[in-house]
Amino acid sequence: MCKGLAALPQSCLERAKEIKSKLGVLLQKPENAIDLIIPYPEKTEKKPEKLQKPTPEEAAQWRESLDRVLNNSYGLNAFRSFLQSEFSDENIEFWMACEDFKKTKNPVKMSAKAKKIYEDFIQSEGPREVNIDHFTKDVTLRNLVDLSPATFDLAEKRIFALMEKDSFGRFLRSEQYQELLVN
User: Fold this and answer.
1) E-state strands within the chain
2) How far is CA 14 from CA 11, 17, 19, 96, 149, in A?
3) Tens digits of per-residue pLDDT, 32-42?
4) Radius of gyration of the CA atoms of the chain, in A
5) Cα(41)–Cα(113) distance, rounded to whole angstroms?
6) Are 122 and 141 in contact (CB under 8 A)?
7) Nearest-angstrom CA–CA distance, 75 and 176
8) Half-sphere exposure of 150 toward its Cβ, with a 13 Å CA cutoff?
9) Residue 156: other Cβ atoms inside 10 A
10) What span, in angstroms and rounded, lies between the C-alpha atoms of 14 and 16?
11) Is the pTM of this model over 0.90?
């Protein structure tokens, strides 16, 4: 490294590397407009975690809010399974992808996850497109230009509200949830 670069603060060097990686995307031939903003995703594998069945008392507390269900690993899995049985699990999958995205620190991984979330859930005619208004889609697309953990916040809030208003009540009345209350 030359003396000029060595004199720069570490934060400047890190920012220069981020800019270089973002500009590298422009050298690739895009297949569609989103490719101009976000590079292709990396594949990751997750190991399933063991879920502990809640006591009937714990499950009864889930009635208080959707947050209670989603913050419990068994509750999240049960709610997700319920939505899959109704063929409407794209909302919870989107919510989970957004929560995972917020925890991502590496800019390259963040870009890859953002691209996948956009293409799967936000983009018109995406394979798992969620039901959000055009304003929310536009805001989300603009947020993709300068990624941050809050990139999908507006869309995630809209989908959470939709699940809370619609799916959560049906889940609480479902046989699957009712069984947790007695066993």
Assistant:
1) none
2) 5, 5, 9, 29, 18
3) 545 545 554 45
4) 20
5) 6
6) yes
7) 11
8) 2
9) 23
10) 5
11) no
